[in-house]
Write a structure and sequence with these properties.
Elements lengths: L2 H10 L4 E7 L5 E7 L5 H6 L1 E4 L13 E6 L5 E3 L6 E9 L10 H14 L5 E13 L1 E6 L4 E6 L36 H13 L4 E6 L6 E6 L2 E2 H21 L3 E3 L13 E9 L2 E2 L12 H12 L1 H8 L5 H4 L9 E6 L4 E5 L11 E3 L8 H17 L21 H4 L9 H10 L2 H4 L6 H20 L4 H7 L3
Parallel strand pairs: 1-6, 16-17
Antiparallel strand pairs: 1-2, 3-4, 4-6, 5-6, 7-11, 7-12, 7-13, 7-14, 8-9, 10-11, 14-15, 14-18, 17-18
Helix pairs in contact: 3-5, 3-9, 4-5, 5-9, 6-9, 7-9, 7-11, 11-13
Length: 475
């Protein structure tokens, strides 16, 4: 699109407000709104200033002037405002006109450029599968004198005996019993369909939607893969639309990995493949699971660097509540065909050269997609550059249900780290692969580690947990 296309959109949709959005390192969106009559060619081409010191992870107060510049191809007529509004994602620039190194979208763009410069492939395709919960009620508090959370869902198993406002119509979802039930057990079908319609109206190609395994409203909507940065754009828009439609229906959507104790958590399985033009590079008819040598090397890079990679793909303390054995969580650092207990699965149903891909199952949607996808690509590129072999490194293939293996055999399989602190320590030790081509900078990595420790890990470690009263009050 060009500036005239944007003005044509404003005219044809009678747009009154233009909303400009940026994404901070943690993955939260921020916006500023400008009356459409004040939007000029200069604003669309040069951008508008903002205070970078007020965005967590950006600038300090003595050096805070920054610019957000609209990405015209992301223009989207937003249906969630009371007046007609056009929304655009933005790139972040320094006042001197150079791109800002901590802008997550810039990191994604640099990763795509490095792939080409390295002569490995022209295009990386990414296709995430985001799981989320739709709750009816969410309350929480964390203060000096109290700490609690409370969630509720009309379809939750714990409500099978409750006296609700009207008659209890039963058909609750049992724990781990939510995969593909038809209504009335699936009480969220119409809401998900409303989400799908809004996603399609926004230009996102939707493949399917369904209820997921857990009780209390776990859902999934799958959208079509695309190039790395475009898929990250779509992921941010997807999360925005899912949350807004849930709110429209008087409900709350969350992408927290583990909001429920004792049931499956929500992941973000990320499908990945490399192409040169129309030529798929991950397919070999004679290879294991029809994988090429290049694909195996890519897998080896992902699994070798997983302990540090998780600092971006699973970047919350809650991520490690999900990554425990027994809830279909992919905690095992092996690869396998069609095996959902492995960290890397190779889909084999209806396989063709162009559909050949790998699926990294460990990530979750607390990840900033720009940063997480870029880090995955850099890990895969490192495996290709070093021609690493996953079998030689002890990463499989392992075509067994790992959860059913004897303890002695299971103990030989490496697992993902068990805490966010441990993956940040791994990132400190293993990050050279991210620095190649200037994709990530040491400044960004150090800032990320400091930010996560100071704002997430340390505050959580310093607070008593409600369950500790159950365990220790009488000692």
């Amino acid at each position: 699109m060009n500036t005239q296309d944007v003005f044509d959109l404003i005219k044809s949709h009678q747009i009154e407000m233009v909303d400009l959005r940026i994404v901070d390192p943690a993955g939260r969106q921020h916006h500023v709104t400008i009356p459409a009559v004040e939007v000029t060619d200069e604003l669309l081409e040069v951008g508008t200033p903002f205070d970078g010191s007020s965005i967590q992870g950006f600038r300090s107060i003595e050096d805070s002037d920054m610019i957000m510049r609209p990405i015209l191809d992301t223009a989207y007529v937003d249906p969630f405002f009371s007046v007609p509004t056009l929304s655009l994602h933005c790139q972040v620039f320094d006042p001197n006109g150079t791109r800002y190194d901590r802008d997550p979208r810039y990191i994604a763009e640099k990763a795509e450029s490095y792939l080409k410069q390295a002569g490995i492939a022209e295009t990386a395709f990414f296709g995430p599968e985001l799981e989320f919960f739709i709750f009816d009620d969410v309350r929480f508090q964390s203060g000096q004198e109290s700490s609690f959370y409370f969630i509720d869902s009309e379809e939750a198993a714990w409500n099978s005996g409750s006296a609700q406002d009207g008659p209890n119509l039963a058909y609750k979802v049992k724990p781990k019993g939510g995969y593909f039930p038809v209504p009335p057990t699936d009480a969220l079908h119409d809401i998900r369909t409303d989400m799908v319609k809004e996603l399609m109206a926004a230009g996102i190609r939707i493949e399917r939607h369904h209820h997921e395994v857990a009780t209390a409203g776990q859902s999934e909507i799958n959208f079509r893969f695309d190039t790395l940065t475009k898929t990250a754009d779509n992921t941010m828009l997807y999360k925005y639309i899912v949350r807004q439609v849930a709110r429209r229906h008087g409900k709350v959507a969350t992408f927290m990995p583990k909001p429920l104790y004792g049931d499956n958590g929500s992941g973000m399985h990320v499908h990945q493949s490399l192409f040169n033009g129309d030529i798929p590079l991950f397919y070999d008819e004679t290879g294991y699971a029809h994988l090429s040598d290049l694909a195996r090397h890519y897998i080896a890079g992902i699994l070798l660097h997983a302990p540090s990679l998780l600092a971006f793909s699973n970047p919350s303390t809650n991520s490690y509540r999900r990554l425990v054995p027994g809830f279909e969580a992919p905690v095992n650092l092996v690869f396998s065909k069609g095996n959902r207990s492995a960290a890397v699965r190779v889909p084999v149903a209806n396989i063709s050269p162009k559909s050949a891909r790998i699926e990294f199952r460990t990530p979750d949607a607390t990840a900033n997609p720009y940063i997480a996808f870029a880090a995955m690509l850099m890990a895969g590129i490192d495996g290709i550059r070093q021609q690493l072999e996953p079998t030689e490194l002890g990463f499989g293939p392992l075509d067994k249900n790992i959860y059913d293996l004897p303890a002695t055999e299971r103990a030989k399989i490496r697992a993902v780290p068990s805490s966010f602190e441990s993956v940040l320590a791994s990132l400190e030790e293993d990050h050279e692969f991210l620095l190649q081509g200037g994709v990530f900078t040491k400044d960004f990595i150090q800032s990320w580690i400091q930010l996560k420790r100071s704002t997430e890990i340390e505050p959580l470690n310093q607070r008593p947990h409600p369950h500790e009263f159950h365990l220790y009050l009488d000692l």
